[in-house]
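Researcher: We're teaching a course module on how sequence relates to structure. For the next exercise, students receive a sequence and then see the predicted structure as tokens, so they can try to spot secondary structure elements on their own. Here is the exercise chain.
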Amino acid sequence: MIFTLPVNTRVEDFDQKGLLTPPALLSIFENTSARHADSIGYSVMKESLCCGMAWVVTNWRIEVLRAPSYEEDFSASTWLHSGSRQATREMFLKSKSGELLALGQAKLCMVDRRTGSPVLSSPERMDAYQPESATAFSDRLPRLRPPVSYTDAEPVSLRRSDMDYNGHLHNTAYLNLALDAAPQEILSQGIHTIRISYRSPVRRGDPLVLKSTRQDGGWIVSFVREEEVCAVVALNEQLKPL
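Model: And here is the predicted structure for the students to work with:
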């Protein structure tokens, strides 16, 4: 089942050129996915607060073909992909005329919040989504890994407002911080591809350092807590598919 919603944007979702920002796109994909779960009776918020279970994103892949402008009407679609050992959410952003504006893919796992351990989703739950065989992307990219060395490093103090309902650094906050760490040259090109690999949850008060460098034609940012790489964000990579 492909679930589609018209997108209701806010003024703050657009940049100085009047184009949708990358964090706003990520937020749109996340919220459309949550509404999809709501529509079949598996509320993301209710299950987290009442049942202690939460879907956790382990990887994001996004490609922006054309950022829509403030004046445009567009919609977001999402569905669950079948045939994968790990739950995979596929996503499209389309204009009113049907033009494909952006593609997204998120790899997910269900976690017991009390133990922090992954749990298997029941067949009944997965069947309720009526998974599709199609995927947003027709190819695969090499696994996103932290660079061997870095050219830049900056400590970061996380705010309470950066946390999500699980008490972890919110998915979009990683992207915002990575964009802040990127040089103006990268930002001036426009952000066309985004990949995020979440390795370990980051919480408020963690001694976090953003270490970054140029790599694969783009900009790579690692979120480092002491010696542990907790997440990696890649912007505008130029990679050959596997």
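Model: If you want an answer key for the exercise: Residues 80 and 89 are 5 Å apart (CA to CA). The two ends are 28 Å apart (CA to CA).
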